[in-house]
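Hi R.,

Here's the chain you asked about this morning:
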Amino acid sequence: MVGIFVLTTTLMLPTTGTATAAVPDQVLAWNQLAYQELIVTGAQPPPVAALHLAIVHGAIYDAVNAIDGGCQPLLVAPPADHTDSTEAAAAAAGYRTLLYLLPGRASQLAGYYATSLDAIPDGPAEAGGVEVGEAAAAAMIFARTDDGRFGDPLFTEGTEPGDWRRVSPTGNNFKWVGQVEPFVIDDAADFATSGPLPLGSSKYATEFNQVKRLGRATGSTRTADQTAMALFWSDHTIALWNRMIRQVSIAEGLSTTENARLFAMVYATGSDALIACFQDKERWGFWRPLTAIREALSDGNAATAPDGAWTPLLATPPYPDHPSGANCVTSAIVKTLRDFFGTNTMSFSGTNATLGITRSYTTFSQAVNEVRLARVYGGLHFMTADAQAVTLGRRVAVWRQDHSFQPVA
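And here is the predicted structure, written out as tokens:
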């Protein structure tokens, strides 16, 4: 699979039941193992993977932070001594939470865990770290039991112009994501968007004709770079961002404690943005461009014309248009990265794991600006769905920055 190993440097993924190399930073090690088990082996779609990475990294953060962090815990601050091993704490928390999420992979996870502990000197520090990690994981597992995951799977379909209709035969389109208990925000409804444009408005016609022209599979007016942009960001959003964040972490030489905080912030914030986003998708239930363009005779707008054969560049996801999930989570992640590093300036790149397309950036904001456009170029969203999603994700991240993960005086 192209791209999966691009950003790992010396951190080697296991290819059998046990890890193939000792990795000093156990936050990065268990991040890579979680990536492998949840996304590569488990094939979890982006909303599910984001939530599960938040569970894993939230526990790892609370364990490491209790020993060495000095910041607000996400859930708990288990009793710890400053001499306890942060590496052992991270490994124990990562192992226990992944075992909770993937009980069918128990033997593989036990092998990874044994390799992690083999890399840590035996003694009281290791034992203490393991105890702290297990306590943090237990608190996270308790908090996420019956948290709303995997509930009602189906968004509400409508029959009126503008109403969302299913365009793919999936049996689960993740409505339940909007019903999950958030990680840091109080109420996802607080971040509701103002909604799609009225069908009869001139602004709607402008956006309709924009995506009709730029987002079609054939005969589009896209440039070659715009097509590459759409295809690059068609990758599994969470997997792509995880690889890019690992690259930044390694390049910046982050410590175990810093990595614990970074990945927990990213995935708790990104997950909450997705929760608010999917709740909003059900709230507005707006049709996708594929339906809108094929059924434009019904929208009451003289400036839109139907095309019954119109097909988007990318396959239409099985849930409503508004707001854009990729933009909600990307905006939340980008704002979190800017907050963590204290700058927007950062050089990084990513490679689409399936298509091999690589794109490079010199600022975090370049990435979110691209995603906002890429979903139009791919024929997946109206621009308003993208723009309001960017605002939603940023608002969630601002809330997190003001209320969570802050240094304790």
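One quick note: The mean pLDDT is 93.

Cheers,
M.
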